[in-house]
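User: Fold this; tokens only.

Assistant: Input:
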Amino acid sequence: MPRLNKTDDLISSFLVGEISAAEKQELMQWVAASKSNAEYFDKKKEIWLSSMTSAEKETFQPEMGYRRFSSRRLVSDIKPAARKSHRTRRLVWGACAAACLALLFCLRFALTPSTPAIPSETSIQVPEGSTSSFTLPDGTSVILNSGSRLSYLSDFGSTHRDVRLDGEAYFDVIHNEELPFRVNTDRLIVTDLGTAFNLRNYSSDADAQIALVQGKVEFSHGAQECSTPMKPGEIAMLNKDTGHSSVAEGRLENVVCWISGHITFDDESLDSIVRKLERSYNVSISIERPELGAIRFNGSFDKSSTTVTEILTALSATGKISFRAQNNTIYYIQ
């Protein structure tokens, strides 16, 4: 193993780039011999690099850089005057080279435009048979109905307030005129400036529904430029295939009753009722005769105290349909 002063000489020669192949091999063998040797080498290298960093101080002075370098005992061995002078020149040239490289390195990163971070997505998924309540980063309250999914990006609330919905949700929006709250769904965009509204738009449904409780919203279908405004108490229905929409006053309590755990049918088709029951109870219901899907029903049930079998029994009592059950998870309407 080299003596300590000789090791420092080898490290110094290595750092200034004036080391022979034999000396380099000797130094590398010494570094690899033990963990303490490797740490000593790394420490000396860090001292050398730090002594060459003059950007934070006055313009680089080779003599001062060398004195700082020597004072930290990177080179601890005292040589004859001729050898010391030769070694000093090597260190000065090495210091200048290191300073130039450091300057080029800094300029490269200073002149290279930074790449903006890609926003990440947060997604809330509610399984069928349950609901979920939460608050968005801007303070807007959201209640998600069963089988629904809402997502938003990590920069939500800073440059935009856009969310994406597949399903049904009730929004109580915090007012912000500079950043309108927008809900993007399957072929439908709802823009809100601070209000409460219910939006139902499952991707599997042919129509979408908006019920405005208070405030003001506007909705547009797909890429159309014009928006349709709504007033409190109004319910909008949109056929997603044709783009046809209608807005009229309606019974809002029947639309938002799911928030309090109720299921209401207000002159609703059996097709629509079946989809609602499947999501609310996480069951499978099959209508064996397609023409039955157009039959309309009225009714209101408390989900917490009523089973899907009891609801189908109530509908069957009208004499318009009948049903049979399989393991209380699969139902056939006939």
